[in-house]
Amino acid sequence: MPNNLQPTATNTGGTSQIITVGLAVFSMFFGAGNLIYPIAVGMQSGQHVLLGTFAFTITSVVLPLIGLVAMILFDGDYNQFFGRLGANPSKILIFCCMVIIGPLIAMPRIVTLSHVMVAPFIPLVSLQTISPSSSLVFALLFLGITFLCTYRESKLVDLLGVVISPILLISLLVIIAIGLFSAGTPVSAQSDLVGVFGTNFLRGYETLDLLGSIFFSSIVLTIIKKAAGKSEADNHKKLALIGLQAGILGLTILGLVYAGLSLQGAFHSHGLAGINAGELFREVSLRILGRSGALIIATAVLMACLSTAMGLAVIIGDYVQKIVFKERICFVTALTIAVASCLPLSIAGLSKVLALTAGPVTFIGYPMLIALTFCNIAYKTVGFKPVRLPVFATFVAALATYFIW
Predict the structure, then answer these.
(1) Helix, strand, coil in percent for the chain, rounding step 5
(2) 3-state SS class at 286
(3) Of the candidates 49, 117, 31, the residue with the CA atom closest to the CA atom of residue 262
(4) For residue 372, which of 74, 86, 84, 79 has the smallest C-alpha distance?
(5) For 334-359, how does the pLDDT look when each residue is reduced to its tens digit (9 = 90+)?
(6) Where are the domains of the chain?
């Protein structure tokens, strides 16, 4: 992680810092996919919304928590985490992960979703008037703001935990509370109980939150170490405990918000089955708040997307600086390259980006990452050494399953 991460907090073990970092964890995780997928869970599950939410939570909350535990065991160093596969395979996998969370899927998904969801609330703009030129202007503005918020990466956690997260949570809680108060009858489930569980279990993959967990955890743990005094810097157990407490807090909030949004999808998505996934959150929110709540809806969208974009930009910028250019350039230059690389797909349209999300990258690559995570935890806890064979076997099984199904 960036060497000059210097958080302002000085009381490492204080409750206030755990809350601040926990809120930062939540806001980094809660991005583009986290707005649309829980609503889709509720709409697909209908009267079985609790089962659908449970299945979705396993892969979108529990797995990231397991990833956080794994990264704590590896002291927040994702190079060590992937390094057990060997020098060259680890370099290739880390590069692939950076491409996925950067210019290929995660960042363009954030930008395009923000545009689709916010456009109707901008004067003289509607979904019908979204064009390549308007997409370009919006992408430049969004990525430019992301750059301005992250080029001083030392302020990332304070900005996320103290400013953005509270605004995001308040906006979401207003939508969820009013939606629950005005709830009527749920929509009809689109499949039986087995289908509800299976569909939403796999839908949790598409959030890419395990991938985020591994790299976001490195940010959180590095910042906690930097905040520790010299006397505590080598107290790995204490620092790990603080990281775990903050992570559990952030992911618990994430799970509760998922549950609330899933309920909105179950009770307020009548007649929306054929709607574009990117418009689902907006349309449900409009039903709950009406046009007068446009500011709240737009705020929730922008805060959610901006917070995750900031975390991803720092990760990718650090990778470009340290790995790609071997620290021959400064972090600001590396961040500029990282953000600029996300522009092409950010103007390609939401449907194209979502198609990439639901493709082999997620359903073949993600199981490999899950296998690696469990192998690494077993290695650190009980001395289980095999890793290449289990990961390769998982790859073969996922590949066969993807193309057969």
Answers:
(1) 80, 0, 20
(2) helix
(3) 49
(4) 84
(5) 999 999 999 999 998 877 887 777 77
(6) 18-348, 364-405
pLDDT digits (tens, 9 = 90+) for 158-214: 677 778 888 888 999 999 999 999 998 999 999 999 999 999 999 998 888 998 889
Residue given tokens 């309920």 in the structure block: 263
CATH architecture entry for 18-348: Up-down Bundle (1.20)
Q: Which stretches of 188-342 are assigned E, i.e. beta strand?
A: none
Start-to-end CA distance of the chain, whole Å, equals: 39
- Tokens 């620290």, residue located: 327
Instruction: Locate 86 and state its tokens.
Output: 């060997």
Contacts of 155 (CB under 8 A, 6+ apart): 8
Residues 6+ apart with CB under 8 A from 154: 2, 4, 5, 6, 7
Give the count of beta carbons closer than 10 Å to the beta carbon of residue 218.
Answer: 21
pLDDT, tens digit, 9 for 90 and up, residues 65-74: 999 899 988 9
Torsion of CA 236, 98, 59, 50, to 10 degrees: 110
Over residues 355-380, mean pLDDT: 88
Question: Amino acid identity, residue 130?
Answer: I
pLDDT tier at 64, thresholds 50, 70, 90: very high
Percent of the chain with pLDDT over 70: 88
User: In sequence order, what DSSP letters do the residues of 371-382 get, joined into one string?
Assistant: HHHHHHHHHHHH
Nearest to 371 by CA among 379, 359, 381, 360: 379
Contact (Cβ atoms closer than 8 angstroms) between residue 361 and residue 345: no
Q: What's the gap between Cα 348 and its chain centre?
A: 21
Structural element, H or E, at residue 325: none
* 202, 207, 208, 210 alpha-carbon torsion, rounded to 10°: -80
